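Q: Hi! First time doing this. I have a protein sequence and I read that you can turn it into a structure. Is that right? Here it is:
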Amino acid sequence: LADRDDDRAAAVYADVMGVRTKHMRKDILFKSAAFWYDRDTADVTNGMNVHHFTEWLHAQDPVQHLPDEYVMAGRVSVLLRGVGAAF
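A: Yes, that's right. Below is the predicted 3D structure, encoded as structure tokens:
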């Protein structure tokens, strides 16, 4: 994600982390990984707020499997960015 290599980030998200989606769309895998573990900038969220963006992600390519060990890290990442933006 730090290198801004969309294809590599999508591959790591799927192949290394084990995330599975219905259609395995690389663009959606990248946006999902970037949102949950890196940033919520307009290039990722298309300017949507957290609620609308997560609904949009699900509508585009629903997650079918997300390993438990990554759930808390993603949630905390999003929550801490929200707290940081409030100050």
